[in-house]
Design goal:
heterodimer; A: alpha+beta; Ubiquitin-like (UB roll); DNA polymerase, domain 1; 5 strands; B: alpha+beta; Uridine Diphospho-n-acetylenolpyruvylglucosamine Reductase, domain 2; Enolase-like, domain 1; 5-stranded antiparallel β-sheet; globular
Chain lengths: ~160, ~290
């Protein structure tokens, strides 16, 4: 059967992107399979694991629980959009490397989006606030401790740099 | 884990959404935040022929704090309600309950009306609506009507809203006594999951510490969230001492008819209903006393 296609225009990582998509195409599938932004991972596909987290208009959301057609007219930031303009890693990404905040890496894009979302609104979070912010993201490797340390380190570095 | 094919329409006004519902009948579903509907569609538990997206309807997103109530548009995001200090001052149970709802990512997208219309008997916001006696304004192409929470929730995942109706607005009663305290608590397997059992309470006390109004209820212990207005009325005039609170909570627990499932037996849920209702009432009392 042929499905109706819907025109969408979305700002993805600062660039305007347009496409025609079937209504049932999830935002994460559009990002990965049509835009080749494979940094965002697909885990459970039903809103439990958090691996697919992206920012929608600056706020973390699950991209498996949105259809691409719904992103029309909005801004999406994926993990690719967190890096500095020259492609080098952001303070937060570098802090994840520094503290071993990842092992297999599957949850990492979602963890980065969730913790960047926290730091954007709260530059000096408590440990409890960090744990709450990443509470919707599952990691089966680290035990979370080094991820919490990464966010704490990033917050300290950002405060020092004034960035 | 991909949704079955459906037709999609993005409504730009409530009137347009109602007209789309009228036209497409029972095969159409409203798409609000999608935090429950989209997973159900991904698992193909539901396969609507049409989705009517109400996310871009500006008139459904607002918070208005008035003298004796707060009004919220049905498509107001949970994160907006959570952050609103004026609302938290007048209807504190909303922020207290939202602390238990999902995660940052789901509250950024999830809506107040979506949670109420989904009517999961374990969900937090339906319990708050039931305990406070919130009123739901429903609109269809034929007109509007208002339903009390008690009439709105009709069973597990079921409401009295007709397939052609759109939940438009929710009225949350605000209590006028200065010394009013409320509390929300629950037990779940993991924080952010639906509750095994949840409890919410709100009490007002006079200058002498005597209860002048009380309301409480439990979720997860029946097909709908449950409130116990008759038992709560017996607390009026008492000093809400621990014995009175425990009696009320246990009387409520014996009225519950929870089911058994993988997560908890009916017996355990009934036990939790009593323990958590007492805990919520005591916390609400302490907050009222501190004012």
């Amino acid at each position: 059967m042929s499905e109706t296609l819907h025109a969408v225009s979305v700002e993805v990582n600062g660039k305007p992107r347009s496409a025609r998509v079937p209504a049932r195409l999830s935002l994460v599938d559009w990002l990965r399979e049509d835009l080749f932004l494979t940094g965002t991972h697909v885990g459970c596909e039903h809103g439990i694991c958090g691996a697919c987290s992206v920012m929608l208009d600056g706020e973390p959301v699950r991209s498996c629980l949105m259809y691409a057609v719904q992103a029309h007219g909005h801004r999406v930031t994926t993990v690719e959009g967190l890096a500095k303009p020259d492609g080098s890693m952001s303070v937060l990404q570098d802090s994840f490397c520094e503290t071993h905040g990842l092992q297999c890496g599957y949850c990492t894009p979602g963890m980065l989006i969730a913790s960047q979302g926290l730091l954007n609104s709260n530059p000096s979070p408590t440990e409890e606030q960090i744990r709450d912010a990443i509470g919707g993201n599952l990691c089966r490797c680290t035990g979370y401790q080094q991820i919490v340390e990464a966010v704490q380190l990033a917050a300290e570095r950002m405060a020092k740099d004034g960035t | 884990m991909k949704s079955a094919a459906f037709e999609y329409a993005r409504a730009t006004s409530t009137a347009e959404a109602c007209e789309l519902l009228r036209r497409h009948g029972e095969g159409a579903k409203l798409l609000a935040g999608g935090q429950s509907l989209v997973p159900m569609m991904a698992m193909r538990l539901v396969r609507p022929a049409w989705l009517v997206d109400i996310n871009e309807i500006a008139e459904l997103k607002f918070i208005a704090v008035e003298k004796d109530m707060a009004r919220t548009g049905a498509c107001t995001r949970q994160c907006m309600v959570e952050r609103d200090d004026a609302l938290a001052a007048r209807v504190p149970l909303l922020r207290q309950a939202l602390a238990w709802v999902g995660h940052v990512q789901t509250r950024n997208r999830g809506t107040i009306g979506g949670s109420l219309a989904h009517a999961d008997p374990c969900a937090e916001l339906p319990l708050v609506a039931q305990v406070l006696g919130a009123r739901m304004l429903l609109r269809s192409a034929k007109g509007t009507r208002t339903l009390e929470a008690e009439k709105f929730f009709s069973g597990p995942m079921a409401t009295s809203a007709r397939p052609d109706e759109c939940l438009e607005e929710i009225h949350w009663p605000a209590w006028s006594w200065r010394r009013t305290g409320s509390a929300f608590t629950e037990i779940s397997v993991r924080h952010g999951d639906f509750a095994m059992v949840a409890a919410a309470a709100q009490v007002s006390i006079d200058g002498d510490g005597r209860c002048v109004r009380a309301a409480f209820g439990v979720g997860g212990a029946g097909g709908t969230p449950l409130a116990f207005p008759k038992i709560a009325a017996r607390l009026v005039g008492t000093r809400l001492d621990d014995a009175a609170v425990t009696d009320a909570a246990h009387a409520a627990a014996t009225e519950t008819e929870p089911g058994s499932d993988l997560h908890a037996s009916a017996e355990y849920r009934r036990h939790l209903a009593g323990v958590l209702a007492a805990r919520a009432l005591r916390e609400a009392r302490e907050r009222a006393r501190s004012l």
